[in-house]
Amino acid sequence: MLLYILKRLLYVTPVAFGVSVVCFALVHLAPGDPLSAVLPADATQATIDEMRAAYGFDKPLPVQYAIWLWHVLQGDLGTSIATGRPVLGEVARAVVNSLILASVATLIGFTFGTLFGFVAGYHRNSILDRAASALSVFGVSVPHYWLGMVLVIIFSATLGWLPPTGAGPDGSGNWRPDFEHLRYIILPAITMSVIPTGIIARTVRALVADILAQDFVEALRAKGMNEWGVFKHVVRNAAPTALAIMGLQLGYLLGGSILIETVFAWPGTGFLLNAAIFQRDLPLLQGSILVLAMFFVGLNLIVDVMQTALDPRIERA
Amino acid sequence: MTAPVTAASVALDGAVPTASPVAEAEAFAPSRGFWGHVGHRLVRDPVAMAAGAVILTIVLVAIFAPWITPMDPYKGSMLRRLRPVGDATYWLGSDELGRDMLSRLMVGARLSLFMGVTPVLIAFAIGSSIGILAGYVGGWTNTILMRTIDVFFAFPSVLLAIALSGALGAGIFNAIVSLTCVFVPQIARVAESVTTGIRKRDYIDAAKLSGASALTIMRVQVLGNVVGPIFVYATSLISVSMILASGLSFLGLGVRPPEPEWGLMLNTLRTAIYVNPMVAALPGLAIFIVSIAFNLFSDGLRTAMEIRQ
């Protein structure tokens, strides 16, 4: 097991390196100088040169990359051009809010996804199965930013039951686990949970159907085990894959939350990215994307290791 | 790293005949050929046919939009803003600048479809080439190409699309470039896995012995046998691409006003949800309908081609 973890780490290192190169390159993909957006139009050449030197943009690209990477490894993601505050602090605050939202959405998605998946897998080609299939097609086809708007129209604009935007009564401040803040997380979390619900339902349905078709299930029934006992065996066999998909979905939601966070003005990484893009705050953009991508890489690693630990049959190279 | 569900290895159910359907039909008179069989199975799938009809209708509307819109999609009237759905003049209501929603939705289909389908088409060409090359040549070429591809899998699709668009700046061209970059790795991974699956087959050896060059084998034997599964996978990405492309415009990173595009219309109408919620929700409904139609059609195509996912 330890050897396996080491192998995975060895494999992840070049990917992480590649991710850092892509994030670094992002800033240099941008048309014009990264500073052009913040400098006034009538800035003198001397001012421009001074700023370029201050941010290190006057050095050759590989040198800039090496310096940037060295700082990143020490936890320094640079300074936001727009606010002048360290990027790490801004991103850390936003990641916590995004992680809360994505975790709640993943939990909702996992609960309903496995429920529908099990029902559909146990009763293949029944009405329930068709309904579960329709639901998963809906989940992957619906533009979630639109679904968010529709839910706001229904539950906020028309019925007035839930607040339309923000993370709490104080607007887009940090989310806290109390009753007042709970009302604010309901709509964005439900909107976000639609995708994992569909994907998990589809996967679990296929898993359960596959497991039920295997010989050992028949053997268990032949030896007189009741359905509840058989069910426990099915769960044990389906769990590693289902949990792995749940883990990956959390990563996708965290990285893909920008649209939903924009609709609901949720103070997370998506909201931060949106601000970074429109203020052309490139260090902030670079830092947020690096953190989110690295989080996703780390999550993948954890999921892989956990899956292997849970299911010894998985032997990977 | 565990592959995402959608990119799960798409495996071939037996080899697809390399010979062209025509030649095949001549050799075995009763046989319909591979594509003939696929077509035959597809027309018997009511869901896929309905989805196909929806796609065809919207494509036709998009093509002929400039000639068939009931009103000028750009001409507004501040006096007739946000008319409700079912209005005598504005059948689907009017937007926040008093422009006819039906006309704008019809013209909007052009850019929305164009921005959704183009990235997948370009990525299909580039991704298949990379994947087939990596899968057929194998060895170090494979390792270098596929490990580079892995880096892009470290970014969730939405994040990568928005990061690239955000860095490149707003605009239709930049949005298409960003979305293409999102789909190339996904298609390349599927192409590589399918190609690796067939490279040891006898007919490849036969082609080698006949003296065909590597390029010819990749173009004729490999491409002919792997294009089906890759194509089906690519069609399943169109729905994602439509949602993402409109999402970019929704964020202000794609199409710029006053050009009608569903994502952008959804964004500008957000302020109207308290005044006229039905009208505000219409552009999103259009995206949803097209996206679900592409998904269902792609599922039907996969079943018809007997490709296991």
TrEMBL record, chain A:
Domain (ABC transmembrane type-1): residue spans on this chain: 95-307
Main location: membrane
GO-annotated molecular function: dipeptide transmembrane transporter activity
Membrane topology: Multi-pass membrane protein
Keywords in alphabetical order: Cell membrane, Membrane, Transmembrane, Transmembrane helix, Transport
Top-level taxon of the source organism: Bacteria
Transmembrane segments: 9-30, 99-122, 134-162, 182-201, 242-264, 284-303
Residues spanning the signal sequence: none
GO cellular component: plasma membrane
Keyword Metal-binding belongs to the record: no
Matching Gene3D superfamilies: MetI-like
Compartment(s): Cell membrane
One Pfam short name: BPD_transp_1
Matches recorded under InterPro entries: BPD_transp_1_N (IPR045621), MetI-like (IPR000515), MetI-like_sf (IPR035906)
Family membership: Belongs to the binding-protein-dependent transport system permease family.
Protein name stated in the entry: Glutathione transport system permease protein GsiC
Organism of provenance: Methylobacterium gregans
Primary gene name: gsiC_2
Automatic annotation (TrEMBL), chain B:
Chain segments annotated as transmembrane: 49-68, 111-138, 158-185, 230-253, 274-297
Membrane topology label: Multi-pass membrane protein
Domain ABC transmembrane type-1: 109-298
Protein localization: Cell membrane
InterPro entries documented for this protein: BP-dependent_transpt_permease, MetI-like, MetI-like_sf, OppC_N
UniProt keyword list: Cell membrane, Membrane, Transmembrane, Transmembrane helix, Transport
Major location category of this protein: membrane
SUPFAM superfamilies (UniProt xref): MetI-like
Gene3D superfamilies in UniProt: MetI-like
Family to which the UniProt record says this protein belongs: Belongs to the binding-protein-dependent transport system permease family.
PANTHER family the UniProt entry points to: OLIGOPEPTIDE TRANSPORT SYSTEM PERMEASE PROTEIN APPC, PEPTIDE ABC TRANSPORTER PERMEASE PROTEIN
Protein name: Glutathione transport system permease protein GsiD
Native organism: Methylobacterium gregans
High-level lineage: Bacteria, Pseudomonadati, Pseudomonadota, Alphaproteobacteria, Hyphomicrobiales
